[in-house]
Amino acid sequence: MAPLYDCSSTEADRLPLGMYIGGFAQSVDPTFLAKHNIGAILSVVNPPANDDDRHLWDRPAIRALVPKNRHMTVHLRDQPSWDFISRMPAICEFLDLMRMQPVKILVHCTMGFSRSATAIMAYNMRQFGNPAPYALAWLRRYHPKANPNHGFRYQLALWGSLGCELWEDAAKTIPKGPYAEYLKEPKRQDCDDGVRAGGEMGKFRQKLSSDLLDDEGEAWDSGLPCDRWLGPRQRFDSFGL
User: Fold this and answer.
1) 39 within 8 A of 7, measured Cβ to Cβ
2) Does position 200 have pLDDT exceeding 60, yes or no?
3) pLDDT digit string (tens) for 4-32?
4) Full-model pTM
5) In what order do the strands lie in the sheet with 38-45?
6) 98: alpha, beta or left, given left = phi > 0 and alpha = psi -120 to 50?
């Protein structure tokens, strides 16, 4: 049976904070994992299917390097209408925990373009207070292929506007105002464009664009930070590899 994932063209890049970003191919390559001392993996991949290749993670050669308790799997399709922001706190907590281990971390999706980039950007934003467009500009310095889809970009903008905290209370029962509005929006997990979900997600993105991004939206396309975002650069890049 042919593998579900065609990852022949993917490659991994090294980031600060002891991380690598790549595709599925690297996550099932024990030679790559051992060479780079990778002992933890964050996989942001499609929901399970009967004919997929994720069983390759459970081979002894992989689990000897990355045991299950150091492997987090987040099921998300690379489609704008899918809800990424609700997973961001858990992703950040996992990365915090794994960075306490004497190993490197691989963050991957299928091709290393969109979902893995979104996860790393969310972590960058929470750790260093960087706005979303600057987090993308920073990531592209190390991984030029980083390119979150437009739905994930707007969720990152919302994440930043909330101070990278979704809840008002420690018990996580009261969502912050903008997140509460987001939760009310109908979300279709089976379409490739939120605009097709009754138009509501399209309206939500338009609101985020006007309220959060203002006239800096072009920074998303260029991947280059405007002057107001240059401040945090030294703090972030001073972290050792």
Assistant:
1) no
2) no
3) 344 444 678 999 889 999 999 999 999 99
4) 0.79
5) 13-15, 19-22, 104-108, 38-45, 71-75
6) alpha
